[in-house]
Automatic annotation (TrEMBL):
Family listed: Belongs to the methyltransferase superfamily.
Any GO BP annotation: methylation
Keyword Cell membrane among record annotations: no
Lineage of origin: Eukaryota, Fungi, Dikarya, Ascomycota, Pezizomycotina
GO molecular function: methyltransferase activity
Name of the protein: Uncharacterized protein
Keyword entries, A-Z: Methyltransferase, Transferase
InterPro entries registered for this protein in UniProt: Lys/N-term_MeTrsfase_sf, SAM-dependent_MTases_sf
Amino acid sequence: MPSAANYLGSAAYWTERVRSEGEGDEQGFDWLLPSDNTGFKSFISDAVKDAATRTAATPRVLHLGPGSSRLSLWMHDLVDDPRHVVHFDFAESAKELGERWERECWPEAAERRMRWMTGDLLELPSVLSISQRLESTERAEGGEVSSPILFDVLVDKGTLDAISCVEALAPQGDLVERIKTFAPDMPAKLIKEPIYSSLMVALNLATISRPGAAWVMLSYGGTRFDAFAARVRSETPRSLEELASRLWRLEVRRELEEDAKEITDENGVTSKTKAYHWLYLLRRTDVPF
């Protein structure tokens, strides 16, 4: 199980960090790769284009943990209606910074701005509230809303990497009841066992993702979601990991090369180095949850 990194599970830590990253030159900060990396942006765009062929409406996009990255601003024109893009972060300062940046970039677009929300991806009620708040907002705006609102594309750039550093957690409350409903034969002791925080997020996000939805992710690690690869499964899930693997199917896992960087050592010798990160695409199955 992951070692505890308590500060990474603190909203206060992330709020202060994002606030400081948005000050000064206001360039923000990007995990793993710059926000203008064409490889990752193309990966996102392709997923959105594919989603557009699966739904008659404008695809709905959920950006997980925008932080102070300007990738969120690039997503303004990712779909026809910016209101179909939701940025969801642990830190209140990320919401404030994103809203300010968007107002500055599109001062005349008050009626067609992206949505900015805060909450905890490890808490099912918080995740469910994304759809609930969005539904209330759209109804108040006079729009026709089908309930529940489900997302077609989820975007994650290093967020799950950070969450994975948080200590293992056991499902609680609403999530336990949902597991009992959709996996009634799973032994109670398995439901209450601590699991990787990344699996907790996968279970929670499955509740607001449309069947066929794409979860596109950039990660530092190349061994995530081995359990989600296609394989023969038992009739009854034998673990929460196996339950999650029924809700999400791993379709893509490949390396993404970072642009070469010049590094000068203590002897004044300059060399170019390259780093590799990993692209993932998880596909939401049609298994109810």
